[in-house]
């Protein structure tokens, strides 16, 4: 079930964020500890973006989330055990519905699984960067989805 995130989801969203990044991108440096990450999600990300969570209909657990900042898909993360079940697609579809004129996102160049996912869903790379525009100093790509045909 996809629903709008609530303030009370902050800890679960932080757990998804931390677990997903550790599993999918172990090469990234840890710039912030868990408490700093939770504070950022609670005080910055959730209040500043339109965020949806994917909630298990059987357990009520948060399995993933997507955060939209205008037409920028700022975050889409899943718990590692929730991948390849259609949850990422459901979250992405919700973000696309909220931005029918198009979406932009950034993905680390080395994150080939995420790149394949977005390309499968109609996103195209529009530029690349050497890492100077992100805190991790990791090369990235900007992707764009133009909206439905």
TrEMBL record:
Pfam families given in the database record: Acetyltransf_7
Chain positions covered by the region annotation Disordered: 124-149
Keyword Transferase among UniProt keywords: yes
Signal peptide range in chain numbering: none
N-acetyltransferase domain span: 1-148
InterPro entries in the record: Acyl_CoA_acyltransferase, GNAT_dom
DNA-binding listed as a keyword: no
Listed PANTHER family: PEPTIDYL-LYSINE N-ACETYLTRANSFERASE YJAB (PTHR43800)
Protein name: GNAT family N-acetyltransferase
Annotated organism of origin: Micromonospora fiedleri
